[in-house]
Amino acid sequence: MIRAVTTTPYLDQKPGTSGLRKKVRVFQQPNYAENFIQSVFDVIEHERAGATLVIGGDGRFLNREVIQVAIRMAAAAGFARVVVGQGGILSTPAASNLIRKRGALGGLILSASHNPGGPTEDFGIKYNVSNGGPAPENITDAIYARTKVIDTWYAADTPDIDLDTLGEVQVAGMTVEVVDPVADYAELMETLFDFDAIRASKLTMAFDAMSAVTGPYATEILERRLGFAPGTVRNGTPLPDFGGHHPDPNLVHARALYDTMMGEGAPDFGAASDGDGDRNLIIGRGRFVTPSDSLAMLAANAHLAPGYAGGLKGIARSMPTSAAADRVAAELGIPAYETPTGWKFFGNLLDAGMATICGEESAGTGSDHVREKDGLWAVLLWLNILAATGKSVDELAREHWARFGRNYYARHDYEGVDSSAADTLMRDLRGKLATLPGTMIGALTIAQADDFAYTDPTDSSTSANQGVRILFEGGSRVVFRLSGTGTSGATLRVYLERYEPATGDLDANTGKMLADIVAAADELAGIRLHTGRSEPDVVT
Ligand code: VG1
Ligand code: CO
């Protein structure tokens, strides 16, 4: 039997950079999750009959409850099959892979990614389309429009299913298949990388799963299949509140890993991932690699892995990501693309075969093997490169800079800023962009200042207001934008970059190298003035 439940719209269900993210207590309001899921199903009304839907999440608080709701609603919506990860678990890249492998219409990924979890923290729902990637803006806009007028949601009147037992069950005429969340993903990784060479290299490593979704994936792939020592994977059990930690693999929240890698007796290689498994932090023994540099170094060496032996078609990066990858693309003689922040903008380039590797400064790297960024993929590509070259991370980094020059880079985040103060800051900045070119700030001359707009080369769709860029003469720059993934107040992100040519100072302190750009950023945007903050909350 199908239940039709009358509801009223919530007006705050606009998907952000990566799906709908809110506090758990917001999701616990009557009909809140149901309204959003029904809005997704309404937008795909003409395609869903007889189709397959993938469902899974990062195991955070509310994961199981919302999965049960989504299964009942999918049955009412006419789906023929739901494929769900055992225990409700699917990392974001594993979900992307399953959607592609099963020819699914799409998937619901339940995660707030790098945001903390637990009863007082964050939850999220994201819809991915049939290529395995996040729904593009025309679809997220349609979902949002639907949430504003929705009046009914539908669900099969059935009990919860057993999410922990592998196999198939029927829910009101729909098949629900509970699958091993790791198996297909691990198999895909074996096709891309030389597992034998990694095993034979006798490299040592530490992987911090941050009590989030990558635990089971990393344990299976690193410890079981690649033979890394037991205990290589730390915090390997997914917990609903991530052990009370912030599952964001950066130098602040993955501090313990950083200390291990900088300390006595550090292993060769260190890495961490985030809540839903799509990010990666890379630290070699004694050498932190910025995500922007990691993208460039992976692209420069990808041909050493079997999956990329034929070379790359192109490299794409988000606008705030440093230009290090562009230099690699130029040398390889392949196109470089600059997209707005968020993985949804890479999907068309990957589908069209225009780019092979993509990345973001926020610790996201991936390729055309799925349509999401992929934390463990980046770790395995690094391991493959280390095994193939016999070099250390530090050696590879130094050689890279000696060849391409170095893009010193940092991101300063001001979190929990009053929203109207943040809006005023951005508005004032946008208001003066036209007057900036040619002016000097300290010793820096502004060459160009604009608000980044993107036209997708495959379908000509446009996205405006994607972040303010101030480009200085000589290749340095500062970028300002407001986060689209936060759940309280505003987060101002200030991206700082300075290019030092191969003949320049390649082993300097990043803070020192960026000091004049930091000062210029404050002078340009009035950060102290508007936010009352003298220091960022997080520097990555
Ligand atoms: C942030 C990052 C962005 C990333 C997004 C989703 O967005 O800056 O690069 O794609 O998170 O990543 P924002 O709008 O807060 O800057 V995840 O791992 O949270 O899905
Ligand atoms: Co994530």
From TrEMBL:
EC number: 5.4.2.2
Co-factor(s): Mg(2+)
Keyword line: Isomerase, Magnesium, Metal-binding, Phosphoprotein
Protein's recorded name: phosphoglucomutase (alpha-D-glucose-1,6-bisphosphate-dependent)
PROSITE patterns: PGM_PMM
Domain Alpha-D-phosphohexomutase alpha/beta/alpha residues, every copy: 13-149, 184-283, 292-404
Enzyme class: isomerase
Alphabetical list of SUPFAM superfamilies matching this protein: Phosphoglucomutase, C-terminal domain, Phosphoglucomutase, first 3 domains
Any one GO molecular function term: phosphoglucomutase activity
Keyword Metal-binding among record annotations: yes
Signal peptide (residue range): none
Matches recorded under Gene3D superfamilies: Alpha-D-Glucose-1,6-Bisphosphate, subunit A, domain 3 (3.40.120.10), Alpha-D-phosphohexomutase, C-terminal domain (3.30.310.50)
A Pfam family matched in the record: PGM_PMM_II
Key word Phosphoprotein present: yes
Alphabetized InterPro entries for the sequence: A-D-PHexomutase_a/b/a-I, A-D-PHexomutase_a/b/a-I/II/III, A-D-PHexomutase_a/b/a-II, A-D-PHexomutase_a/b/a-III, A-D-PHexomutase_C_sf, A-D-PHexomutase_CS, Alpha-D-phosphohexomutase_SF, PGM
